[in-house]
Design brief:
The protein has 115 residues and is mainly alpha-helical. The chain has 6 helices and no strands. Helix 2 runs antiparallel to helix 3 and helix 3 packs antiparallel against helix 6.
Length: 115
């Protein structure tokens, strides 16, 4: 009875839903919305997303979207990646949350215009 009443978030780790949620997560950080970033993180964790996948996306995002606007963002993302690989779930969610907030609050790099 208890299981039947529990709402289960939709998530297909090998399909379209996987990419839709990771896209929403990235957009929330690009948009400097830490509350949305934490929502998407919680949803990925609840649905069993691989902690290494999430941490890799943070490293990529720190370099691509923040870059030299805040060079420490890449250091923070790399440190988070190392920490979650050592720690694993459930404590990794704390480390990821800290990194999410930091990246969402960081200034974002302006796209380079080609001459």
């Amino acid at each position: 009875m208890e299981v039947a009443q529990k709402r289960i978030a939709l998530y297909d780790k090998s399909g379209e839903q996987h990419y839709d949620i990771i896209s929403a997560f990235i957009k929330s950080i690009r948009g400097s919305d830490p509350n949305a970033a934490i929502y998407w993180l919680a949803r990925m964790i609840e649905c069993g997303e691989d902690v290494k996948f999430i941490a890799r996306r943070l490293v990529i995002l720190a370099s691509e979207d923040i870059g030299n606007a805040n060079p420490t963002a890449l250091v923070m993302a790399n440190a988070s990646f190392d920490a979650v690989n050592k720690i694993g779930y459930p404590e990794a969610s704390i480390i990821l949350s800290q990194c999410f907030f930091y990246l969402a609050a960081s200034p974002k790099a302006m796209p380079q215009l080609l001459p």
